[in-house]
Design brief:
single chain, about 400 residues, mainly alpha, 15 helices, 2 domains, 2 strands, two-stranded antiparallel ribbon
């Protein structure tokens, strides 16, 4: 499509939109959603027409000879020159496979932080030392096989490096060609804050307004921007062996819980469930403060939120459809925030807004740092004179 034809097409499209909006002005007053439907239809006409034009085979020189006046295709009118419309949209090129892998890795990280693998390792040590009454049974056999398979798996150090590379968590050394993803936690917290705030605004608007079916006053643009920032961050940090590693460690986690759930292991420590075994071992042998419940809920809800982001839902332009898709993670975002708050790992935003790229929040234990704060200059010391002529600080 040449420049003149494209200009005429866009002008005609705008005129069509204005004319239809005037014709349905009464309907727009009664049903604001009709305006969104109209805008979406016009947008789809524009996108489909321009996309069809872009698919046409361009001239061998992409229209350069028309522009500079060389050859039989040369023109003296700028409006007759070929104008490509656009390139591929960045936010629609994200691969769901890698985001789903990171979601599982986040789930694994929270269980590792709880101490599941350390509990199994402690049981192994006690089993080898003969310090526990285990000799046969599914639990004892599982501990033996868990130990024999260790040489075939990624090590604990490999896992810690992966957590820091994917999420910026921990202090494990990073390989020379890599860097820690220190932006993840801020972006993840910000996205959950915006989702939670959007649905709090919607609930309030549903209560205080006469027509609860009207669009809420929450901004889907802010939620979309927060989600795209997080998704793009994970896209850049999810290359490499993370996909394979999470598959192997998910199998390892399942095997660990199969051991902890065995009757002889539960009988050994007087537990009813595998989670009871974890908490008893952590309390008796590691003297740890238990964070099992909030960490496990962060694992479950965090993984579902990241899985939601792996899908194209965040690109939905219409408010009703966007709200219908976003409701899947509304309560999960609230629950993740509440659990993270209870551990001191997140805080709720006082007001909606976009998170600046350079912003950092200080969070102990996450391996990130807050912006440097200049120490306040000491106030000048005043002195007073004594009667004998010496001076002392005031």
């Amino acid at each position: 499509m040449d420049e003149q034809s494209k200009r005429k097409f866009l002008d005609l499209l705008a005129a069509l939109q204005s004319a239809v909006a005037d014709d349905i002005a009464g309907t727009l007053t009664e049903d604001p959603k009709a305006g969104e439907v109209l805008a979406d239809r016009i947008s789809k006409i524009e996108e489909s027409t321009l996309a069809a034009d872009d698919k046409k085979t361009p001239p061998p020189d992409n229209g350069l000879s028309q522009l500079i006046g060389i050859g039989s295709a040369a023109t003296t009118d700028l409006g007759k020159t070929r104008v490509p419309d656009s390139v591929e949209v960045y936010d629609e090129t994200v691969s769901s496979e890698r985001i789903l892998a990171v979601a599982d890795l986040y789930y694994i990280y929270q269980h590792e932080t709880i101490g599941v693998f350390r509990v199994v390792q402690k049981l192994q040590d006690l089993f080898r030392a003969g310090a526990v009454y285990l000799s046969e049974g599914s639990g004892a056999m599982g501990l033996y096989q868990f130990d024999r398979k260790e040489v075939l798996r990624y090590t604990r150090n490999d896992r810690l490096i992966a957590y820091r590379r994917a999420f910026g968590y921990g202090t494990a050394p990073i390989l020379p060609a890599s860097r820690p993803n220190t932006e993840f936690h801020d972006l993840f917290t910000h996205f959950n804050n915006e989702v939670a705030l959007f649905w709090r605004d919607k609930r309030i608007s549903d209560v205080i307004r006469e027509r609860a079916y009207d669009p809420s006053f929450g901004s889907i643009a802010v939620v979309r921007r927060a989600g795209l920032d997080l998704r793009n961050n994970l896209k850049l940090m999810s290359y490499g062996h993370l996909n394979v590693l999470r598959v192997e460690v998910m199998q390892l986690l399942e095997e660990a819980f199969r051991i902890l759930e065995s009757d002889d292991i539960k009988k050994l420590v007087g537990a009813d469930t595998a989670w009871d075994v974890v908490e008893i071992i952590l309390t008796q042998h590691f003297n740890e403060r238990l964070v099992t419940s909030p960490r496990q809920r962060m694992a479950v809800t965090g993984r579902e939120i990241l899985r939601w982001l792996a899908q194209p839902h965040i690109m939905q332009p219409l408010r009703p459809q966007f709200e219908a898709l976003l409701i899947d993670i509304a309560e999960m975002s609230e629950e993740w925030l509440t659990s993270a708050q209870s551990l001191g790992l997140a805080r709720r935003s006082p007001a909606p807004g976009v998170l600046p790229w350079s912003q950092r929040m200080a969070r102990p234990g996450y391996g990130t740092s807050s912006p440097a704060v200049r120490p306040r200059a000491a106030a000048p010391t005043r002195t007073v004179a004594r009667a004998n002529g010496s001076r002392v600080p005031r």
